[in-house]
Amino acid sequence: MNNTPVNPAENATVPVFNAAPVPAPEAPVLNTAPAANETPAFAAAPIPNAAPAPTPAPEQPKKKRKLWLIPVCIIGVLLLAAGGIFGFFAMKAGNADELFEAGKYMEARAAYEPLSFLSSYADKVKECDYRMAEMTLEAGNYLVARDQFLELGSYSNSAEMAKECLYRLANKQLEDGDHISAAENFDDLGSYKDSKELYTECFYLNACELEAAREYEDAIEVFELLEGYKDSDSRRVRCAMNLASELYRSDKFEECAKLAEEYAELHPHAALYRILAELGHLREQGAEMERLRAIMDIIAKYTNENPDAKEAMEDPEFFVLRFFGADWEADNGDSLDADLEELTIYYDVSWYTPDGAPWYACDENYLFFFTDKNDEFWFAVTGFDSYDTLHPAEMYVTDNEDKEYVFHNVSSED
Predict the structure, then answer these.
(1) Taken in order 294, 298, 300, 304, is the CA torsion positive or negative?
(2) What are the angstrom distances between the C-alpha of 218 and each of 43, 88, 125, 203, 236?
């Protein structure tokens, strides 16, 4: 038997009424509220002891989360970090500035480098490089300094300073006599400062050196390129005349005559060398003394008509011409003519050295000298009383016993 108490409300019978069907209106409207004078068709029986329906609790409003605090916190943290970083960089920048002011540019550059992501400090790095390039330049390391300035590109006046490095190098080379290298660098500099003028000066000095070294052909070529610059024109002609003299002494008579003819209108001595070349041809062919003297008379006449040509009278060739161009007789009546055909003449003794000539060839007091067929010294001509004419009045001679003689010109005066 089930002893569970029964809730009477659960077993209560609810009466049901079957109402007659009501036809549906055309537009049915559900109206749940009865009219004021209407009696409800039925009334629901009350449910005895029914528990009242629970009243739902009013919905509490949701609390809003404070999401705005998150970005605020992040920003705060970032600001604190930025402040720390800024303080660190500020300290680094301060140290770098002190190093820079002290002229320690390499250390300053190393301190500025971590800050170079900022344009102002990137310029500081370049300024350090610029200052170090200046120091390299002042130390005389011109090419290294030039490379340093070139690496700086368009910073400040780096391009101009790179040219200045090359300019100073070229001037140093010019000062040291390296004219070719200096000329190349001045040429690279174009119109920078006075580079064009110094470029020309390099070639001029080089030509002067060639002339001093008796490299006349090369000197002539350079002086010709420098036409109109300083005394290049007169130096070129002088080199040509010196070359003509060398050609004559080397028995290259045709070349001598050709060169003299080329400069005939530029130098008063050019005609002389043409005559000398002809004289050389005669001597080479073993011409008689009378023919040689005839040529000497032509030369004497030429020099008298061209006073400017008298400078050539001190040429060693003319020492020999004076000797052969006159009849000489000593105070005691001795003559030199008898033995000359058997003797060998050495002239321009400065061209001879102990390695290639007898010992007496080194005596600078000899204008020229003669040896016999055994190459034994015979006598030397040490001077004349005048060098303004081909026919001086006196000639001074030393023999193989070191005796000195005075010979007089007994031929007709010029």
Answers:
(1) positive
(2) 147, 70, 52, 12, 10
